[in-house]
Each structure stands twice: as structure tokens, then as C-alpha cells.
Amino acid sequence: MNCRVCDSIKLDCVVDLGEQPWCNHFLKKEEIGTEPYYPLRVVYCRDCATAQLDYTVKKEIMFGNHTYLSGVTKSLSAHFRAVAQDVDRRFFAGCTQKSVLDIGSNDGSQLKHFKELGYQVLGVESSRTTAEIANAANVPTLNLFFNLETARQIGRTFNVVNASGVFFHLEELHSVIEGIKECLSDDGVFVVQFLYMKSIVENLAFDQIYHEHLLYYTLQTIETLLERHGLMIFDATLATIHGGSIIAYVTRHGCRPVSERFRTMRAEEDNSGANDIETYREFERRIRRMKQENLEYLGNAKRQGKTIFGFGAPVKGNTMLNYFGVGTDIIDCLVEKNELRRGLYSPGMHIPIVIEGESNALPDIYYVLAWNFKREILAANRPLIERGVEFFFPVNPKE
Questions:
Q1: Side-chain half-sphere of 92: how many Cα atoms within 13 Å?
Q2: CB–CB of 277/44 below 8 Å?
Q3: Mean pLDDT of all residues in the chain?
Q4: What is the 8-class DSSP label of residue 72?
Q5: Would you call 128 exposed, middle or buried from its count of C-beta atoms within 10 A (0-12, 13-18, 19+)?
Q6: Mean pLDDT confidence for 13-36
Q7: Contacts of 393 (CB under 8 A, 6+ apart)
Q8: Which candidate, 174, 165, 274, places its Cα nearest to that of 210?
Q9: How much is the average pLDDT of 122-136?
Q10: What pLDDT sits at residue 373?
Q11: What is the DSSP letter of 13?
Q12: DSSP letters of 124-186?
């Protein structure tokens, strides 16, 4: 393959997580054992340093009708509210007519907060069920994949274009960026939120590698991509959401001055070695050690007769469960809030999903797959912790 960002053919495999099912394909009972498997490997581009998958599961398979809902967790909604308020205060507080386009808008959670601030809102969401949920909540949403063709169909520009948690998903990467340029007003701001590969490596959060995440950006590598299309980052901040995400503020080249904050972040990244191939090779070695340590912990707990439930059924949890080889011999069930996953089973390991609060059964240990909401989970479950239920976090992100 060619590099997704710069078209180079100088690609080296740095992380190999084996053959895995598409991890958002939660299964009905009759589907168990029929799910296809695909290579899950990260390669490193020697020319532009971008980490990326070397295999693409087609977007129509992954995003045509997935079950992820961004409005399920309070932490994420609070994050989206803060982003909307910050963007409005800093850039468009004085505008009387202002508008925002959200790419991969999911159930409309981000747009609801912009709408409260007086913005005209429009979402573009590929999942039919999710788009229906957004429209039912009075968030106008087109059920389409966003690319240059879709942008031309929309036929208008926006003060803000937002892409939260979608920019690393893009099979049609360059067409999408051209579409963003098409929809961005001359002085508009493109707000792109993405998992920060530097944080993924530091947190050992390898479960955030899965087939939907085709690219793993650092500030350097996303700059390389944007500059290819005449766009530039003029400011950025590191948010704690999802264990470490960058919120980058992008504009047409030369339209806004580059902040000192961003210059400092870029210098810190350069000095950390985050873009060096050896950093990725050491990351894989640490992943292998983590697997051994977690299997020892879980195995010891089972030998002591303890029951273990998974806390949450996040998509990323399936990367971890499949790579570790942890199934129903270790974990009885996955306890989940998302109603769209009611009665389903995890792909690969086939662990049943139960809805939180619908069973009186309590485990000795909750193995927390939704570790990125650690603070919220611990606060909400203080009574269980006081009763002796252990909450084990395989990944402990920096606060």
C-alpha cells in the first residue's frame, strides 16, 4: 500500500495485533462464529512518520449502521459542551448569524450544544439508525458519507466545521479534506478532535487501535496532511477525554496567527521522540508485557474462585479481549449502558452483553474496558467499591 497521508511506499510494520474481527460488529446469537477476521497491523511511514493501518475494512461495512452512541456518557457530553462554548467565545461570539457543520455527527450530541448557542446546525452521519436518532431529537442530519461530492451537494459554507472522533476513520481521506475546504467559510474554523498517538503510546492504550481507526496522528503528522490541502493548525490543546485527545483549530493557510501554545506543544512533541520509529517498536514490546501481566492477574483471580464481569462494552475493548484471548472462561458478561447493544455478544470472544441495572448479580471484580471514563465510573460506583467490589483498570490514563 501507499501511505495514506503522503503516498510513500516506505512503510514498516511496528505493531501486529493479529487477525481480529471488526470490533464494532456486535453479534446476534445466531451470528456467533460467522464474523470475518481481518489483519490488525500498524505500519509506520518512514517519509512522513504517520502511523496507520495497512488493511482497510470498507467504510460501508464499518459505518453503515454501527451501534456507537456518543450521548451515552455524561463526561463526553460535558466535553462537547465545553468545546462548543470555547469555539463560540473565542471566534464567533459577535456574530448574529452563525452556523456549524458536524462531520460524523453521530446522535447529534455535539451539535445540540452549538444549537443552544444560537448556531444553525447540520450533521452528516453515515449510520442510518444513528442519524434517525439525531433527526428525532431535532438535530438536522444527513444520512450520508461525507466527502467532496457530499460537500458540493450541501452547497453552502459554515463558520465552523467540526470533526470529533472521525478524522482518523477516513477511507476517503483526501476527498474529505477537500470537502471540508469546500464547506468552510473564508474566515471559518475547522475544529478537529482526534486521539493523540503520543498519549496512546504513553498510556499503553493499545486497545484504541482497531479497524475503524485507520490513522494515528501526532501533531507533526496531521500538520503534514493538512498542509497538503492548504490548511494549517493555528492553535491546539490536549484534552483528557478518551485518555488524551487533541483539539486542533484549523484555518485556511495564513488566515490566523499561530498561537504560542501550539508552538510549545509542537516543540515538546519533537523533543519526546513521539515521531520516531523506535518509539513504536518499544510500544509493541510493552503491549506484549501488558498481555502477560493481565492474563496472570485474571488467571489468579479465577483460581481464587472470583467472578469477573467486564465494565462497559466499548468497541476498543474488543481489541483487548481478542488480543489477550479472554472469553467467557474468564469474563461472564459485559455490563453496558448502550441500549443498541442489548442482547448482543462481543465479536471474537462472544461474551454476552447485559444492560446496566437490569440484574442484581454482582461480580467480585469489574474488569473496566471503558477505562477512558475512569473518574465518572468510580464516582458513580462508590457504594459498590465500599461493599468490596474491585474495579480493575487495565489502562490507567494520565489525568
A1: 25
A2: yes
A3: 93
A4: G
A5: exposed
A6: 95
A7: 368, 371, 374
A8: 165
A9: 92
A10: 87
A11: E
A12: E-S-HHHHHHHHHTT--EE-S--SHHHHHHH---EEEEEEES-TTS-TTHHHHHHHHHHHEEE
Does residue 316 surpass a pLDDT of 90? yes
How many beta carbons lie within 10 A of that of residue 337, not counting itself?
14
Helix (H/G/I), strand (E/B), else coil: 14: strand
Rounded to whole angstroms, what are the CA distances from 208 to 23, 53, 124, 154, 242?
11, 12, 24, 32, 9
C-alpha cell at 232: 494549517
Asked if 355 contacts 337 with a C-beta cutoff of 8 angstroms, the reply is yes
Question: Which run of H or E residues covers position 110?
Answer: helix 109-116
pLDDT of residue 91: 95
Please write the tens of the pLDDT for every residue from 96-127.
899 999 999 989 999 999 999 999 999 999 88
Give the pLDDT of residue 386.
97
Place of cell 503516498: 7
Please give the grid coordinates belonging to residue 143: 444520512
Instruction: Compute the distance between CA of residue 227 and CA of residue 216 in angstroms, rounded to an integer.
Output: 17
Spatial distance between the Cα atoms of 316 and 324, rounded to a whole number of angstroms:
13
Q: Where does the pLDDT of residue 227 fall: very low under 50, low under 70, confident under 90, or very high at 90 and above?
A: very high
What pairs with residue 232 in β-bridges?
A: 251
- pLDDT for position 126: 87
Question: Per the structure block, which three cell numbers stand in for 204?
Answer: 499503553
Q: Average the pLDDT over 179-206 and give the result.
A: 96
Residue tagged 431535532 (cell numbers): 138
132: number of Cβ within 10 Å: 14
| Cell triple for 391 | 474495579
Residue 251 in grid coordinates: 484555518
